[in-house]
Design goal:
single chain, 118 residues, mainly alpha, two-stranded antiparallel ribbon, 5 helices, elongated
Length: 118
């Protein structure tokens, strides 16, 4: 498959390199890394190549977004610090609630394109 091909129903992303592999594969044929069993982790829906989950980001934005935890989770520590510095104004909490709604309505493909860089 090519890199631009979309993931099928019976496929998943490799936890290490992000290549599209068969859902039942135990080892990635591209990088050779053993895949994590589904029963070993809580399933919060599809994840990006670097392991970020759209649902986890949305939950963090809803519950801890006022102090920027979701920004740290998504690999944006600069914005996380800004949220922390201004948390006393409650403006970051309002923005985080809007981002919560955005994360919930965003498609998995769009989330993967925006936050899936390893």
């Amino acid at each position: 498959m090519t890199e631009s091909a979309s993931k099928g129903i019976d496929e998943k992303y490799c936890t290490e390199c992000g290549a599209i592999i068969k859902a039942k594969a135990e080892i990635c044929p591209k990088c050779g890394v053993r895949q994590i069993a589904k029963s070993a982790a809580i399933n919060l829906g599809p994840t990006t190549a670097n392991g970020k989950s759209r649902i986890a980001a949305a939950l963090l934005a809803f519950f801890l977004g006022g102090i920027g935890v979701h920004k740290f989770y998504l690999g944006q520590p600069g914005l996380g610090i800004v949220y922390l510095l201004f948390c006393w104004t409650f403006i970051p909490a309002i923005i985080a609630f809007i981002e919560f709604i955005i994360y919930l309505t965003m498609s998995d493909e769009a989330f993967n394109q925006k936050y899936g860089q390893a």
